[in-house]
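User: Please predict structures.

Assistant: First:
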Amino acid sequence: MVSPVAIGKACAEPAALPLPPVDDVQVLTLRTLRSPWRETICRLHGLSAVSIISCMADVDVNKVVRQHLEMEGFFAGFTIRGKAASAPMAGPAVGQSPTANSSPESPSRPAPSGAPTPPAHDAGPRVAAAPGPAHSVEEAGRELAAVAAEVGQCRQCELGSTRKNPVPGEGHPRARIMFVGEAPGADEDTQGRPFVGRAGQLLDKIIAACGLKREEVFIGNILKCRPPENRDPRPEEIIHCLPYLQRQIEAIQPDILVALGGHAAKTLLNTVRPIGQLRGQFHEYHTGLGRPPVKLMATFHPAYLLRNYSEQNRRYVWEDMKKVLTELGLPIPERNKG
């Protein structure tokens, strides 16, 4: 592993950074790195933009994603970010219009040390992230809004041209639970919102069964644009979209990620194991060097339940969600304990 000192030195002295030869997959991975690191690495290896683009061939998706995450995670700590603006967040839930009964803070959110405890609401348990030093709700909201704006302008792959609307995701900017699906479908493409079709309606019911509301969690996808005919995501599409999702996770700082379906689970966990083997237990999603892992629960996608409904599959999903609630210290609604 190349040390941070060597990386920093290489920016000033390119020849000082020893790197192994770059194969096609690594070159493909380099496309996702943020400047100036991509330019530095490419310069060291004598790579041009044309040579990078020419590497878009069929590759093993898991190898691609694994290398992408490893390299993105390694460089994440050395990316220079601009200072957050001081303007207040435009709305309480990213991707949604402000409503009269919504608030930027979630009622069950513990107050930071030394801060007064907000009055309790009578609408039942709420879900928001435990307070952390890195992001306030407003800062997280600004970062999510910035990601959404960039997704709206993104044309890094063909999906940017075939989509009707980008679907960056929506929900509470500091939600404790973040649901991640595979990709938008036809209804989502039309409305520009995640999980609004039949599968979304079932997800809403699952969230409600947990005693929660949709605006108290965050819902997104691996891909931010609909693949034509709802085909499976391609490796290069995943690579282009993953940095957006990673930034959303960093901003929200959820306590638990819930991966909906095999594609989302295998992408986030860098594994080829089927969803049947992944569900029902907590895994760790690593966000980058120096950051603690986020617990991840994989479960069946709502669309899978609609296609393959059975009492057993329904119970599997509910057992997974009960484990999530228990891990968060949230009550399991009485009517749904069985």
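Second:
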Amino acid sequence: MNTRFMSLRANVFQRAEQSPIKRATLTPSRLLIGTARQRMCRAIAFATTFILLTACAPVNLDAPIPTFETGVDSNAWTQVPAGEFLFGQHETVETTEAFEMMITDVTVSQYTAWLTEALASGAVSIGELNGKKAKVPAAQQSGIVGFYPGDTFHGVKHEEKIEAGDWIFIPLDDPASRFIFDGKTFTPKPGYENHPMTNVTWFGAWAYCGAIGGRLPTEIEWEKAARGVDGRPFPWGEEMSRERANFYASRDPFEEMSTFGSQTSPVGFYNGKTYNGYQTLNNASPDGLYDMAGNVWQWTGDVYEGLHYRFMRGGSKDTYEMDLRAWVRNNATPTYFSPGVGFRCVK
């Protein structure tokens, strides 16, 4: 990184020193033009240096972020009616039964409260993550694990076995996690109480939903809840704007690349309210669900035959706006965790 940067910087300055006009033929007027060009090149060189230094600077994950109360109740659920809807980019007709879905992603407060109870009851435990079932970097060798009953193995090429046993729910030593753990109690980091729970694996999302009497949504259920029945690409309609969702380069109050980087926004943040002069537009779906586009990818519950991967929907703070369309899919192994992945439940 440093070698490439110095090489690029030297190249820019070298070009700044080289005038495109032969000095033997310079007249006073042309000398002024050449000097102006050199000044402009020097200015570009200095600007390039600043940009490169800023881009290479480390992000402070613990830098303070703005805190806002959205007024949206993260404990609320909404009914998604039974019936047909237009599914996918090419709008095939699919049908669902009626179901209820959380109107926001599961928050850090909700998940950490459950983790504390689950640890005390023995439903989860602290385990080592350096085994075959949970390959993570050496710096993240411990985490919360819990039981999963396993999946049927079909022996398809590249399929991996998901056997019954303890699997990783969350890492404990990842600096991007938004909770504090004192050995017995989990609490949100200050300012992140109403943010979506992230750095949680598919197993950790599956376990939480089951513990509260729900489950993860199927892909079909998720998409119907996100876009309604009329085939719209985004939860709110046809067009994207920066004021409706948290995505890459959306210029929201939670994106400051020189300090804390790109962070999640509180659940339900985009509801039409103004926060310290930042005007949002309502991003609720036809059934009243918030953040079904952007902020964090959301795990879905389907387990497909011969495929150990799990699928996510919705895009995130780290993806471009094109990935926020309702039909876009992402996938990862069920042990995957990221500061850009969360979930919500249905029942």
